[in-house]
Amino acid sequence: MCIASAISVLMILICGMAAYGAYKLHPAWIIPFFCYQIFDFALNTLVAISVVVYPNTIQDYLQQLPDNFPYKEEIAALSNICLALIVLIFIGSILFFK
């Protein structure tokens, strides 16, 4: 919880700096936001590549979910290729909207 709070505060700070830099026409204030965007894009791309290379890991992640997770059995019944395609579409849509 502490790490999630720290990341949220940093994201608010970075977005605030970007908004302030855009408003006051100070391009140096926008640089941390672009650095975060590049890091986020690289991380999402690495996750997408790992899903393509190791599609069986999705089943491993599903097995680690708690038993009361909704639709866990239905999702686990899907084939590895179908799960990989769903994850890739989800990651692709996130990258597209960013």
What does the model show?
The chain is mainly α and 98 residues long. The chain has one domain (29-97). 79% of the residues lie in helices and 0% in strands. The chain has five helices and no strands. The two termini are 25 Å apart. The model has no long low-confidence stretch (mean pLDDT 89). InterPro entries: LAPTM_transporter. This is Lysosomal-associated transmembrane protein 4B-like.
Q: Percent of residues in beta strands?
A: under 5%
β-strand number: 0
Give the helix level as a range of percent.
over 70%
Q: Enumerate the spans where pLDDT stays under 50 for 5 or more consecutive residues.
A: none
| Rg from Cα | 18 Å
Q: What is the distance, rounded to the nearest whole angstrom, between the alpha carbons of the first and last residues?
A: 25 Å
Overall spatial form: elongated
Keywords: Membrane, Transmembrane, Transmembrane helix
Organism: Notothenia coriiceps
Protein name: Lysosomal-associated transmembrane protein 4B-like
Membrane topology: Multi-pass membrane protein
